[in-house]
Amino acid sequence: MTEKLWGGRFSERTDRIAETFTASIDVDRRLYAHDIQGSIAHCRTLAKADVITAQEADTLIQGLIKIKRAIEHREFEFDESLEDIHMNIEARLIQDLGKVAQKLHTARSRNDQVALDVRMFLREETLAVLQDLLRLRRVLVDLAGGHLDVLLPGYTHLQRAQPVLLSHHLMAYYEMFTRDFERFEDAFGRMDVMPLGSAALAGTPYPIDRHYTAQLLRFSKVAPNSMDAVSDRDFIMEFLSDASIAMVHLSRMSEELILWSSSEFGFVEIPDAFATGSSIMPQKKNPDIPELVRGKAGIVFGNLLAMLTLMKGLPLTYNRDLQEDKGLLFQGTDTLKACLGVFIAMLGKIRFNAGAMGRAAMSGFLNATDLADYLVAKGMAFRDAHKCVGEAVKYALSGGKELRDLTLEELKAFSSSVEKDVYTILETEAMISRRASFGGTARRCVVSALETARANLEEDGRRLDALVRRILDSDSNQSP
Fold it and tell me: Are the beta carbons of 123 and 191 closer than 8 angstroms?
C-alpha cells in the first residue's frame, strides 16, 4: 500500500476494504486539469507572498505541467490508495521533484482545493450548456420563421381547443428555453466565486493574496467566509435544479414529438437518422431519440434529489459525504448536454406535415369560442352565448357536421342574432388573425415575436461570447 501523505498521526495502515470504499479517484480524476490549474495559481500566490521562492514556484509549475501532459497522454498511473485526484497529483509531484514538492500544499487544504476544482469545472460546463441553449433557441426561431403559414390545432387536456400557427407553438418552447438560459446565466455568478485560501475551514496564517489568486483563475469574486467556502455546494444544487427544469422542457417537447409522429396524429416526420426500427416488425419507425430524452429527464431529477438529500443534514464545515457530490454533478451535466446536443441536431432536420396539421385545425369545433364571441359582439351575455353555442355544437355532432357546415337557418335556430357574416368569423385563418393581443397567435404577433427573439439572441450571444473569453481564453488565464 502507498504511504499516505496524511499518515503521520496513524499507527496502522488503512485496511484495503476501507481504501476501496473511500477512494474517489475513479470519479474525480476528471478534475485533473482544473486541479493542476488551481495548483499553478496557488504556486504563484505563494511566491508573491514570499512563502516560497520564485525559483521554487517555477520548479513546481513545470512539474505540474509535466504531470498534466502525462495524464493527457495516458502515461500517468492513478493509485486508488491515494484516494483522490489531489493526492495522486501531489504524490507524483513529490516523486518527480523531491522535497520542494512538499511545499505545494502550504496554505491550503483538500477542502478548499476540491471546492475550487468543482467550481472551475462547473463554470466551464455552464458555459457549454449556455452555448447549447443558445443554439437550440436559434433552431426554434429558424423553424418558426420557416413555417409562418402552417396551421395547427392548439390543445388543452390533449383535446383540440383553438387553432394556432405552428410558429406560435414552436415559439412557446423558445420561451421555455430562454428562461432556462436566463437561469443558468444567473446561476453562473454564484458559482464564479473563488474559495481557495480558506484552507481546512478557518483560513490560513500565511500572508497570501486571495484576490490575486482569483485574478489568476479568472474568478469575479472571492468567497468572504472560509467556513462557508469549503462546505458550500449551493451552486451544484442550483445547477442541477436548473438542469432539471431544462430537462422538463426537453421532455415536454419530446412527448409532443412522440405523439405527433404517430399515425394517429401524423403531424411530424422524425428524420430516419434520428429514429430506429423494430427487431420484429419491419414496418416500424420508432421515435427513440425523443423517448430517450424523456427518459433521461428522470436521471437529472434523481441527481437533484440525491444532492439535496446529501446536503440537508451536514453540519459546518466539510464532511466526507461531500465526496458524493461529483458523481451526481458529472452525470447531471453529461446527461443535459447530451440531450441538448441531440435535440439541436434532430430539430434542424425535422419535417412537419402541414396538410395534416391544417386539416386537424379545421375540425373538432375549434371555432366554437369564436361563435360565442360573435354573439357577444351582437349584445348577448357571454354565459348565454356559451350555452347557445354548446347547443349548436351538440346539434352539429348529431348530424356529423362542423359549425361552418350548418346552414344560416340552422344557426338562427339557436340565436336570431346570427347573420350571414358569421361564416367569415368561423374561418380558421380569420380566427387566428383575430388573436392579435400581445403574445397572441396572429401572424403579425408571431412575426413581431420572431423579430424580438432574433434581437435577444444576438445580445445573448454577445454577452455569452464575452463571458467565454473571460473564463476560457488561454491568453488571459492560467492554463498550462
Answer: yes
Burial of 378 (0-12, 13-18, 19+ CB in 10 A): middle
State the Cα–Cα distance between residues 305 and 294, nearest whole angstrom: 18
Q: Which residues contact 31 (CB under 8 A, 6 or more apart)?
A: 85, 114, 117, 118, 121, 326
Helix-, strand-, coil-residue percentages of the chain, each rounded to 5? 65, 5, 30
The model's pLDDT over 285-329, given as tens digits with 9 standing for 90+, comes to: 899 999 999 999 999 999 999 999 999 999 999 999 899 999 999
* Average predicted confidence (pLDDT) for the chain: 93
DSSP H helices, 218-283, are: 226-231, 234-260
Nearest to 183 by CA among 111, 113, 237, 147: 237
DSSP one-letter string for 167-190: HHHHHHHHHHHHHHHHHHHHHHHH
Domains of the chain with bracketed CATH: 7-106 (1.10.275.10), 115-198+224-354 (1.20.200.10), 368-426 (1.10.40.30)
Give residue-wise pLDDT tens across range 50-81: 999 999 999 999 999 999 999 999 999 999 88
- % the chain with pLDDT above 90: 89
Q: Is the dihedral of CA 29, 184, 309, 202 positive or negative?
A: positive
Neighbour tally for 86: CB within 10 Å: 25
In the block, residue with C-alpha cell 435577444: 456
Residue linked to cell 436521471: 299
Does the predicted TM-score (pTM) go above 0.90?
Answer: yes
Which of the 8 DSSP states describes residue 276?
B
Decide if 363 is catalytic: no
DSSP 263: T
Residue 437 annotated in active site: no
Catalytic residue among 220, 278, 363, 476: 278
Which segment of 121-135, 230-244, 411-425 scores lowest on mean pLDDT? 411-425
Helix or strand (DSSP H, E) at 138: helix 110-145
Catalytic residue among 157, 263, 279, 398: 157
